[in-house]
Amino acid sequence: MPRSRSASIIHVLLLLACASAESVTHTPDQKLLRIPIQKGGWSLSRRDASTASQPSVASLINLGDLFYTSLITLGTPPQLFYVQVDTGSTTLWVGSRNCNAAGKCKEGNSFNPALSSTFKDTSRSVPTNLLYGKGEVAGYQSQDTFSWGTLAVLNQDFLLVEMEDAAVQAEKTQYYDGVLGLGRGNRNSVLNKFMQAKLTQEPIFSLWLNGTGDNNGLDLVSNGGEIVFGGVDSSHYSGSIVEYPVIDSSSWSIKSERVTIGGAAVPLPSGTKALLDSGTSLIVMSPSLLASVLPKIYESIGSIVPAPVASLGNFYIVDCKKVASLPEISFNFGDNNEYVLQWSDYVFPVTSSICGLGFQSNNVGNTIILGDIFLRKYYSTYNFQGPHVGLALAARTSKAFINSDVKGSIDSSGQLATTSTVKEIPPLIPAVTRTTALSSSEPSSPSSVMSVSVSSTVTPAASDTPLTFDGAAVFIQTTTASFSSTMGAEDFSRIIVILLSVVLVFV
User: Fold this and answer.
1) Cβ contact 358:283 at 8 Å
2) Is the sign of the CA dihedral 29, 380, 365, 346 positive or negative?
């Protein structure tokens, strides 16, 4: 796509590299303690670096097992945004009010710089483009006061977006307002700003993603997931965390040694790596690698690989009555540990009788993108100091939603029962009308480092790679037609309380 010479172009690339896959094991005894979010109204106060000895927590919202969002604020007084949490990128961005008014963006909430007394345009009128595996946004570099969970900083860098292309708009569908990158390689990223301000004692964060399986497939407004800054939450994993060296300078990528399907190894090209990416819903690999993987999956049910069906989201599909015969799929990162996915981890409903496989192809070279399907099964830690990525079996985690009648058709031996009926699958994403209602008091003496306490358990998230679910856009569009009362009154009231009770108090 042609661009002006003055445009500052940022490419979100997957760089190939090789490194040894030595592992380091940490037991739960070595953990930092989790500090729960305080309940009550918002309070903002100065934070001394010496008080940053405990981890901080932000909760995540699970939208239909497709993407994870979190609540952040930008500006003075604060403007609220739901952003997708993305370990595969480094940039924070939200759409501008002008962009939405012109129809060039599609956000539920958009940023109005005219309403913020602390907003700074740092672009010098030079636009910046963000290129994704699917889609593109463009805007202007900016700074403003930022808060997420219990942490806040002044002069946080972000991209104020003035254009989202059609692909980005189709995938966002107004269910999140931007992306918050948690990757490496950007000194002005949110995480780097937190560490520079010494808001976290340890240069680490950890991620727990919950599934909607125990919630009948409905969104998890509370308990959808959790990110811990500066430590881990031992209640959300079992066993030990095993760390692997990161082999990329710009991403959370580790060496991928092999993939095994039903006990049969799939040859991997030299230098294959695995990228842990919470901004991608599925597991994505190159067309050539997927062409080696899929036949082994379909062989288990005596079938050849079908062509993806455009009207069904371009997923690889399977009869839901056959899913219990699908094989285990395991990933190895160079040691003696196998990270196994059962069929119930990588299968999801497409229609009342058709299920999809959580694997898709894209031009990602020798990279396997391990998205939310993998990260729901395994608790993950991200250590900037190594750098290392850590993995452990997740605990207190529900699987992604599988229709109850499909699950009920499997008897105690693990085989499908002879009779079953499959009811209609509930919609994945309820329509929640979001408004930004804010009250504020002017700061008497702004500080460069602040602490925020959040009411309720709903907080922030973000993302910035092959934007969310590569290929799932059609699925989302076809399943969001009639959503009205799928959210419980308690969950809905939590959102209303949050949106109506934000007050900043600077001391």
Assistant:
1) yes
2) positive
Options 233, 277, 345, 491, the catalytic residue:
277
Q: For 338-375, give the DSSP string.
A: -EEE-HHHHEEESSSSEEEESEEE-S-TTEEEE-HHHH
Token pair for residue 395? 């605990």
Q: Tell me if residue 65 is catalytic.
A: no
Question: Which of the four pLDDT bands, split at 50, 70 and 90, describes residue 201?
Answer: confident
What's the alpha-carbon Rg for the chain, to the nearest Å? 22
Tell me what percent of the chain is helix, strand and coil, each rounded to the nearest 5: 20, 35, 50
Annotation says 86 is catalytic: yes
Alpha-carbon distance of 396 to 31, in angstroms, equals: 17
Q: Which residues contact 22 (CB under 8 A, 6 or more apart)?
A: 245, 334, 335
pLDDT in tens, 337-395: 999 999 999 999 999 899 999 999 999 999 999 999 999 999 999 999 999 999 999 99
Q: Which of these, 88, 452, 54, lies nearest to 232 by C-alpha position?
A: 54
Of all residues in the chain, the percent with pLDDT exceeding 90 is 57
CA proximity to 160, closest of 203, 206, 100 = 100
- The tally of CA atoms less than 13 A away on the side-chain side of residue 172 is 29
**In terms of DSSP bridges, do strands 388-394 and 273-276 run parallel, antiparallel, or are they unpaired?**
unpaired
Counting beta carbons within 10 angstroms of the beta carbon of residue 423, is it exposed (0 to 12), middle (13 to 18) or buried (19 or more)? exposed
Query: Smallest Cα–Cα separation from 240: which of 335, 373, 330?
Result: 335
Task: Count Cβ atoms within 10 A of the Cβ of residue 330 and give its class: 0-12 exposed, 13-18 middle, 19 or more buried.
Answer: middle
Catalytic option among 86, 219, 372, 464: 86
The two three-digit tokens of residue 485, written as one number: 């009362």
Length of the chain: 507
Provide the sign of the torsion angle of the four alpha carbons 28, 29, 31, 33, taken in this order: positive
CA 121, CA 142: separation in Å to the nearest integer? 5
